[in-house]
Amino acid sequence: MPDIDKEALRREVDAALGHNRAAGQAQQGPQRFVPGPGTTIKHVIGVVSGKGGVGKSLVTGALAVSLSRTGRKVGILDADITGPSVPRMFGMGGRHARAVNERIVPLVSKGGIKVMSTNLVLENETDPVLWRGPMLMGALRQFFEDTDWGEIDYLLVDMPPGTGDVALTVFQSLPVEGIVIVSSPQDLVQMVVGKALNMAAMMDVPVVGLVENMSWLSCPHCGGRVEPFGPSRLAETAEHIGIAALDELPIDPALAAACDAGTFEKALPEGFVAKAIDQILAHEELEG
Question: Considering the entire predicted model, what is its pTM?
Answer without folding.
Answer: 0.88
